[in-house]
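> run fold Lateral organ boundaries (LOB) domain protein
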Amino acid sequence: MGGNTTSPCASCKLLRRRCAKDCIFAPYFPSHDPKKFAIVHKVFGASNVSKMLQELPIQQRADAVSSLVYEANARVKDPVYGCVGAISYLQNQVSELQMQLAVAQAEILCIQMKHDDQPLMQNQEIALDHKPYDLPQYFNFPSSSNVIHHDSFSRERIF
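> ok
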């Protein structure tokens, strides 16, 4: 696209300049996707992006542009934390899900232990009481108001 006078790259269009044959932006910001460069330009500035791309080996530039686009989008959505906020949010979700998994595994273990103590007769149905277990206390987990308790056939969050 660089050097093509009829269709300059997205950056040259936005900056209203002629797209040179060796335009550093042309391979990464095609004319059919102007929003991609617009957001990167808004957050980082064309001059800074140009300098970053020039300092990188050609084989790393496409990945760098992808990263810049991702970071710019995150910064627009969350001006204070940007992509760090998104990463932190996902890490918190993973931690919460790990805790829920540990509680569910403890519930299964508790139910198994409870029923292992009772001898089963042939064709006897297992009657489960459907009361919530106080698993954090039972297994010495740190108490939390976000613990998921076993309740009948569904799970509900107790706040």
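The first helix runs from residue 10 to 15.
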